[in-house]
Amino acid sequence: MSYVHYSTNYVNAFWDGTRMTYGDGNATYNPLTSLDIGGHEVTHGLTNFTANLVYSYQSGALNESFSDIFGTAIENYASPATFDWLIGEDIGAAFRSHSNPNAYGDPDCYLGTNWYTGTGDNGGVHTNSGVQNYWFYLLSVGGIGTNDLGNNYNVSAIGINNAAAIAYRNLTVYLSQNSQYADARFYAIQAATDLFGPCSPEVIATTNAWYAVGVGSAQAGTAASISTSGATTFCEGGNVTLTANAIAGTTYQWNRNGSPIAGATNSTYVAGQVAVTLAVLLLAVLLLHQTQHQ
Ligand SMILES: [Zn+2]
Predict the structure, then answer these.
(1) Which of 40, 64, 126, 202 is catalytic?
(2) pTM given for the model
């Protein structure tokens, strides 16, 4: 439910836990009923009934950011001809930006320039939201640059609809009340994996967009698989050659139960039966550890 014409000269809109309320603005600002602001407020309702992110500090910044993300995604869906990456432009003046949070005094990098550490605004929920806001922009349209931490990034575009689908699944399936930026990264990657498959371009872009905004490591972006040559069932004493398939420039370390096997650093590994003892095959517990040259 939405209420309009709230109060007088009221330049705000809000979700109160039950309904949305919109002011008429003032001499400078038009009524706060634009697509992005309406989408922003109704997303607070969605968040309330899903992750229910606590409205303070990092969880509050994520709460605000999801509202900006879906406000922007809704604007893109409903009015592609006039769509932009600003928040609030249709009421007279924008007050936040996905594409350039710094332009409005917000950070585009975790702990970077403009990152707010005070107690005002519930711990900077409308400021530190800039980090995930910029993540969403980079994931949608791609980008190359150097962030405030001095890290060079290169994010491939996956489009705003795919980016929104990942954010939506993250918010509604995985995140919870006290989730922090590290959780938002971890579960965004999980959400992308669910939707698009392991090591898909979407997963790689999601990971690299978080790296771009200062959260977590980059992902090189090579899918790896293991193939076998020779029979995989054989008499005691037999073996099978495992081959890891990845692009050139990859180094290898074969692991057993998560621990490196000494000397097993080629793309192929010959796995055999444990001598004399139980007929347990090593190959069942071999995993490929892939290290990409950056
Ligand atoms: Zn809000």
Answers:
(1) 126
(2) 0.76
